[in-house]
Amino acid sequence: MADNPYLHNPNAAAQNPPTASLEMKFGPGDLIRRSATADLPPPERQLTPLAKLIDVSICIGCKACESACIEWNDTDPAIEHNHGTYTNPHDLTPEMYTLMRFSEWVNPETENLEWLIRKDGCMHCADPGCLKACPSPGAIVQYSNGIVDFIHENCIGCGYCVKGCPFNIPRISRKDHVAHKCTLCSDRVAVGQGPACAKACPTQAIIFGTKEDMKKHAEGRIADLKSRGFKNAGLYDPEGVGGTHVMYVLHHADKPHIYSDLPDQPVISPVVQAWKGVTKTAGLAAMGFAVAVAAVHGLFARANRVSAEDEKNAEQLLRGEAKGGSA
Amino acid sequence: MTKLIEPGDKILPGNPPAVHRYRLGARLNHWTTAITMVLLVLSGLAMFHPSLFFLTAIFGGGQNTRAFHPWFGVILVISFFLLFLQFWRANLWNRSDVAWLAHVGDLVAGHEEKMPEAGKYNAGQKFVFWVMALLILGMFASGIVIWDEYFFGLTSIEIKRIAVLGHAIFAIFAILTLILHVYAGIWVRGSFGAMIRGWVPAGWAWRHHRQWFRALVGRGEPAE
Fold first, then answer.
1. Cβ contacts of B148 on chain A, cutoff 8 Å
2. Domain extent at residue A225
3. Chain A, chain B: beta-carbon pairs less than 8 Å apart
């Protein structure tokens, strides 16, 4: 990806794509993880890690990103009722891969009302809980550039990804019975463009590029916020999931939860780890062992058969009773 | 009080003599449960371990496997419940079962003659009966929680995580119990036929369920 100028420019997503036909920059050969696949061959090359950076402090809540997402992914979210906030629809849905969540927070230090707007969607974890939980080979994949993608044709619609995700992102569609979420516009990124949301954002609160560049850009933004009194400004790139390829600049990075319940320290649930770790391995081993013991006993121990003596004893008992009855 | 004789149990005089053991209803019930259990094991294991995902082909793919599995479960729960109603009284635990279990090593080593006499069901069969009943109850409850098609909104994701872990653990123990049950049925020759035809040779009853056999003989009301 090093040869792609669009990915080195923090504003790449806002630019128009070249008119020449574009070659795919990455594909199935670049997978570093594939759900329910133990023996995935390692990729021949390492792509430059990419990231989307969402600067919450300059988001104006216009929802251009939502519209662009719907437009590009050709989804059809239902028209809902007003739920009492600007958040609309009420939640992420199988047709709504990204959602502006609005929350009103009174800063206890300043007594100011702060209107916090967070663009919710898949965080593209380096250690994806969805992929860990997925039982269907190849339904969830992770490319070496960090994009975690759902491959719908392999999805069985079981909802395990919903249980695996620390951010409550995947949604199972009732129409096609497969899981849906933000793809980080993998189809656009593959031809050198940025995600649709980033392209649509009028304040460039959403930018896209290499993860390294995005972190550098975030540093500048954080320094600016700190100079303006947000002493806890910081980058949200949570270590508990190995870092994410969607990052936030938060003006109150010490308390992510005030941004519509963004997890303070997201990790794959230990329950999910136990389920997909020791339970799976030990369970299969125990069942295999039981079958083996039965097979060995069946082969080497004598079958438990009724003997001639048993038959004689039974008939004797029956005769004895018959005699007794007639006496 | 453990029931020693179930409805329909009777001596069938003849040459060789036989004993009626399972009524038609019980047999149909048993095999409905058995078939749905096999379907559940196959579809469940396909979703449990990637190395067994190929089993989804039996059901026409992963989507079908995911959709059918809970419905197999519903059939099994109903079928097992009817089975439970018929069998539970004769499966109540009593003191002689402890003695039987203490001698289970003799049984496996091929010395059943050293075992205490068993009633209609021996302690091993009672163990399978009660363990399966509890595990099926556990799998039904946890299965409802993770049946997202109909019950997604009822519980939180945290509860669903616990349910999906519990469902897997219950299923592993159920499969282990099933292996024990099926193998015992194969190893103890004549058991399979009993559940197919409904009757057993008198010698079989003497060998494996002597207390029950004695009780039937003692009742002194051979079939007409």
1. 158-159, 162, 172
2. 5-267
3. 151
Whichever domain contains A183, its CATH number is 3.30.70.20
Structure tokens at B73: 């479960």
B26: tokens are 């019980």
B50–A294 CB contact, under 8 Å: no
How far are the Cα atoms of A98, A161, A313, B65, B141 from residue A180, in angstroms, in the given order?
11, 10, 69, 20, 27
Within an 8 Å CB–CB cutoff, is residue B190 touching chain A?
yes
Q: Report the predicted TM-score, pTM, of the whole model to 2 decimal places.
A: 0.92
Query: What's the pLDDT tens digit per position in B2-40?
Result: 899 999 999 999 888 999 999 999 999 999 999 999 999
Token pair, residue A286, equals 């125990």
User: Taking CB atoms and an 8 Å limit, are A284 and B51 in contact across chains?
Assistant: yes
Beta-carbon neighbour count of residue B172 at 10 Å? Answer: 23
Q: What's the ipTM?
A: 0.92
DSSP tally for chain A: helices H, then strands E: 9, 11
Domains of chain B: 23-218 (1.20.950.20)
Set of chain B residues whose Cβ sits within 8 Å of the Cβ of A162: 148, 157, 160
What distance in Å separates the CA atoms of residue A128 and residue A142, rounded to the nearest whole number?
Answer: 8
Which residues of A fall within a CB distance of 8 Å from B117? none
How many Cβ atoms are within 10 Å of A268's Cβ, its own excluded?
22
Give the DSSP H or E segment for B11.
strand B10-12
